[in-house]
Amino acid sequence: MIRQTITLLRKDLLLELRGRESLPAMVLLAGTTMVILHFALGQTTVSGSIASGALWVTLLFSATLGINRLFVAEQEEGGLDAVLLTPVDRTAILAAKALTLLIFMVALELITIPAFGLLLLGPALGPTLPGLGLVLLLADLSIAAVGALVGAIAVQSRIRDLLAPLLALPLLLPVLIGAARSSAQLFAEAGPAEIPGRWPLILALYALVFGLLGVALYDNLLDD
Amino acid sequence: MTDSPTVHGRGLRRLAFLTAITLTVAYSMVFFWTPNEADQGFIQKIFYIHVPMAIVALCGFMAGGVFGFIQLRTGKRVWDMRSYVAIHLSLMLATGTLITGSIWVKASWGHWWVWDEPVLVSFLVVFLLYACYQPLRFSIEDPERQSRAASVFAVVAGAFVPLNFAAVRLAQAYTHPRTLGTTTGGMPGSMMLTFLIALVGMSLLFVTLWKFEMTSKNARMRLSSVRRRIERDYAPGGNI
Amino acid sequence: MPALPLDTAGKYVAAVYLVFMFLILIYVAIMSARLGRVEKEIAELDRLLELGDKHAKAPAETE
What are phi and psi of B75, to 5 degrees? Predict the structure, then answer.
């Protein structure tokens, strides 16, 4: 099954590399959102919970864009049906989609975090990075698991691009809570404070739960 | 696909009667028997509707998830109907919870909404999620796919409900110590009894409405299949 | 938490119970509307059956 996953993953990544549609759009949206936030908040720099909120709103909006694009590209070109015809393990499809989204999110963050440090963040970015990296990774795992599941549900519907954000955002709320509370500590005015241990734990558990849900449900969802 | 008319409708009349009696007893007790609470005074009476509604709505959502899971396992569409009705009714109860909760908050604090109440906030999130259920269902043409997607949604959302409550509660514990409480901790015996009867009444109401709606849906489906048979065999090309 | 005097508190409590009743009433109204449609459909089917009966008789008569 792992080989199937890797093959599918390579296919998705190659498609993106050649088409260059989803990731640039996500990055662009993130940049625009930060500019909007600057004007909307009316402040030169932000710190603490406001900084945390600004960052996570930006990341979540771009994530929903990514979720929307996760299946749609294939569905429109008939690619999904072709994959379903092969005797591929449905769970491999899930894993490939989740990993694709994970890679997109990481790539997005590699560009967005420095930009955030430059444009909006008050306190220095450097010292926050180790803790921030952990929080981002755990949150991305949840986003990937939820996104793969939600994308597969939404793609069945006529109004798929409307439904995907509407389904994903409430489901990602606990992730937002954990991530925002953690990064609020990191972005404190006086320098990064310690993250209470419960939040990373919760983030990891959430990713695990949704990963398991995906594995349990994917066979049913994609069969035709 | 449809089951015999007696499966869901069985005992419906008796159930409805029992529900009416229980609720009447419960609410009479609320107003004529239980004492006023020390702190909140008369406002506390709201809890005898608001909290049972909340509890039953949450159980209904999770039941919808269980039914959806069974549908995926067995492939029998009747479970999908059961899931749909459970979620649909729970959504109505969730709306009621939000409205009555808001009224309670206004009575206690003077605002129509506060973020301090974890239960209310969690309900808002759950409501926003389940509000997508019907748009999702009815935007999928193929009935087979519709049932499957709906059941998967029901399972995921049903699993999400307890997770969400836990997460929101944890978030609140940080910034706001829980000064308000919609839970029933430390209630004197008379209040607890009334509350339990109100809870039973609300649950009976849910089951009654659920059975009622299942029976009605079933009847409509059999009616359309009868109609198709008549149009085909008996009056082909019959003018309408 | 403030203990409101009975007259102001009463309004809110009444509002809550009224909302509850209202929700139930809406539900009953929707269900009765559906019942009305079902009855209309049954009447329609009755009519179709009669039509079918006539067609069945008419060819037999012309024979």
Answer: 75, 5
In this prediction the pTM is: 0.87
**B167 falls within a domain:** yes
| Residue B50 resides in a domain | yes
Other CB atoms within 10 A of residue C51 CB = 17
Under an 8 A CB cutoff, do A153 and B136 touch? yes
pLDDT at A191 over 80: no
Residue A119 has pLDDT above 80, yes or no: yes
ipTM greater than 0.95, yes or no?
no
Tell me whether residues B153 and A167 touch, CB distance under 8 A. yes
Cβ A156–B140 below 8 Å, yes or no? Answer: yes
- Is residue A38 within 8 A of residue A118, CB to CB? The reply is no
B1 in a structural domain: no
CA distance C29 to C22: 10
Nearest to B42 among C13, C27, C45 (CB): C13
Which of C39, C57, C40, C36 is closest to B235 using CA atoms? C57
Positions of chain B with pLDDT under 70: 1-10, 38, 173-187, 234-240
Domain range spanning residue B25?
Answer: 11-33+41-177+188-223
Residue B110 maps to which CATH number?
Answer: 1.20.120
Distance, in Å, from the CA atom of C48 to the CA atom of B28, rounded to the nearest integer, reads 51
**Chain B: residue nearest C22 by CA?**
B96
Closest Cα of chain C to B8: distance in Å?
16
**Helix/strand/coil (H, E, C) string of A106-169?**
HHHHHHHHHHHHHHCECCCCHHHHHHHHHHHHHHHHHHHHHHHHHHHHHCCCCCHHHHHHHHHH
B138: in domain: yes
Number of domains in chain B: 1
